[in-house]
Write a sequence for this structure.
C-alpha cells in the first residue's frame, strides 16, 4: 500500500477544501437566531466570525502568544463577533454554537475522493483545527481519515513551515513524500516552500456567490483537479509518477 | 454520535489486544531466516525481541532517558537480539525486519468489533507504539481507527499515568469519558488509577500455547468480554450505562 518513492501520504487543508464551513456555520447561527427571534444575517455572521480566524493565529505564529487550540480561538472570536453584532447569548448556548465547527458538512465530492485516495495513500487532514475538533468533524461528516494530526500536536499554525514539516516527521516521512491538497494557493505556496508536493482544487463558493479569490491554480502545482473525486482519479491512475516531478522536490 | 455523559471514546491497547504480535514477528523472522538458510526458532526469536520491550521503555518512564519512539527502541532491541542469537543481518535487512511491527495481523475478531464500536464511539489505539507505526499497521490490517494518537505524541509510555491522561486531553475529554480496552490486567490497573473506564478481553495465546498470565480478569473491570466482537455487542447494546458505574470514576 505504501509505495517506495514518491508521495505516500495525501493530506488536506480542511476548512474550505474538504468541508463547507460557511454554509455549516450560517445554518447553526440561523438556528440559534430563530430560537431567540433575533434578526441576524447568518452568512454575514459566519463571515465576520471567520474574518477573525487568521488575525487570531498571527500572534501565535509570530511567537508573541503561547499556543492555543483553534477551538479556544474560535470561542474567543465568537465572543467578539457576538459583541460586534450586539447579540447576547448565554454561555452554554455560545459553547453549543462554537461546536458547530465539529459538525460542518463535507462538500459533495469529498468522501468519494478520500475513499479513492485511501486505497493507495495514507490520508488525513493537515489543518489548523485541533485533533479533537477534526476527529469529531470526521465522525459527523463521514471523512475516512487514516490519521488525524491536529495543530495542537504540531503546536504551530499554517502557513508557518513547522506546521507542514512536523506533520511529515510524525508520519516518519520526508516532506517530499507528503502532498498537501488545498483550495487555497497561499497554503500550497507555503507547503511547497516546506518541501511538500502540492495539489489544488477550486472551491469557488467557499466564500459565497461573490467569491473572487482562489478560483484558479496560481502556480504550477503538481496536481490540479476540478474536485476531490477528480483528484482521487488522477492520483490513483498513475500514482508512481506523482511526487517525482522536479517541481515537487524541496527547493 | 457522541453521547452526553458516560464513555465517548473507546481506546485500545494494541500489541496483543488488537494484533497478534508474536505470530506476525515470528513469520517475518522465519522469512528472513529461510532466505539466509539460518537455523533459528522464529517464535523464540520473537519472544526474545519482545522481552526487551518493557526494559527498554523503563529509563524513559523514569525520566533517565529523553523520549525515544518505539520504532527506534524496536531497532535497538533487534540489534541486541540479533547479537544474542549470534546472527548477522545487513542494515537494510534489519530495517526491513523492524518494519514487521507495521504489518502485524489483527486477531480474527478485531475488525468486526471495532466496526461495531465505531458506530457509537470514537475508536483509536492507546498504545506505546508511535503514530507512524500505528497508522501503517492500521492500513495493513484494516483497523478502522477514527484517530491515532501514538506515544510519540503524549511523549510518555504506559503505564505512566500521563500516557492515559494526555491522550484523553488531546481528545478534549475527561479521563472518565475514555475507556481503555486491554488484554493485560496491569494496563487496566494503571488506566483505572488515571481515571479511565476499563474493558478486559483475554488473549490466551498472545504468548503462545503455554501462556499462564492474563487468562482472566483480575479485578472488577467495567466490562469483561470474550473478544472484541463480544465487547462491541456489550458496549453498543446499552451504551448509556457504560462509564456511569462508580467503579470507573476517578478515585
Amino acid at each position: 500500500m505504501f509505495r517506495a518513492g514518491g508521495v505516500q501520504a495525501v493530506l488536506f487543508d480542511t476548512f474550505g477544501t474538504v468541508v463547507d464551513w460557511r454554509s455549516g456555520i450560517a445554518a447553526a447561527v440561523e438556528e440559534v437566531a430563530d430560537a431567540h427571534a433575533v434578526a441576524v444575517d447568518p452568512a454575514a455572521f459566519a463571515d465576520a466570525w471567520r474574518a477573525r480566524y487568521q488575525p487570531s493565529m498571527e500572534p501565535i505564529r509570530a511567537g508573541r502568544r503561547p499556543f492555543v487550540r483553534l477551538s479556544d480561538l474560535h470561542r474567543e472570536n465568537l465572543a467578539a463577533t457576538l459583541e460586534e453584532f450586539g447579540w447576547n447569548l448565554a454561555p452554554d448556548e455560545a459553547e453549543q454554537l462554537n461546536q458547530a465547527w465539529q459538525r460542518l458538512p463535507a462538500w459533495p465530492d469529498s468522501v468519494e475522493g478520500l475513499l479513492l485516495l485511501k486505497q493507495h495513500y495514507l490520508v488525513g487532514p493537515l489543518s489548523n483545527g485541533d485533533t479533537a475538533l477534526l476527529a469529531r468533524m470526521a465522525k459527523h461528516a463521514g471523512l475516512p481519515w487514516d490519521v488525524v494530526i491536529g495543530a495542537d500536536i504540531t503546536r504551530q499554525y499554517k502557513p508557518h513551515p513547522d506546521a507542514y514539516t512536523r506533520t511529515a516527521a510524525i508520519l516518519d516521512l520526508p516532506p517530499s513524500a507528503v502532498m498537501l491538497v488545498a483550495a487555497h494557493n497561499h497554503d500550497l505556496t507555503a507547503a511547497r516552500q516546506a518541501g511538500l508536493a502540492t495539489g489544488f482544487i477550486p472551491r469557488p463558493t467557499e466564500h459565497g456567490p461573490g467569491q473572487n479569490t482562489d478560483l484558479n491554480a496560481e502556480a504550477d502545482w503538481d496536481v490540479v483537479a476540478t474536485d476531490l473525486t477528480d483528484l482521487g482519479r488522477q492520483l490513483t491512475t498513475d500514482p508512481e509518477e506523482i511526487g517525482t516531478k522536479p517541481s515537487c522536490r524541496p527547493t
Residues 1-5, 244-251 of chain B have pLDDT under 50 and may be disordered. The CA atoms of residues 113 and 230 of chain B lie 7 Å apart. The two ends of chain B are 28 Å apart (CA to CA).
